[in-house]
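Task card 7
Instruction: Convert sequence to structure tokens.
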Amino acid sequence: MDLGESHEDYLEAILVLSMKNGDHNVRSVDVARMMNFSKPSVCVAVKKLCKKELLEKDTAGFLHLTKKGKVLATQVYERHRFLADRLVDIGVSRATAEKDACRIEHYLSAESYEKIVKSFALLGSQDIP
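Output:
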């Protein structure tokens, strides 16, 4: 499913917050704060993600990834972690690696990503997802 960079970022942020705060403790305001976006912008994205059945919002206002949403969010998150960690491994500062990984993760094809992961596995890296 081609979501686009923005929606992938929202799913990833919700996944990270749910890992940190617990699945039942993520609200739109938390996402806005984490991503440094306005709450109205987050609300628009949440509605779109709910329409795509990737996210649910309960009556108390908490956000929950659906099974499909969690799979997609996990893929984006794992790709981000792998890329950021490899950039750090070659000497890039953590702050720069995080920013660059966020950009790269959206544009790297699945084929290229798989080949990069395999090449690191052949080199004996222990941190391959």
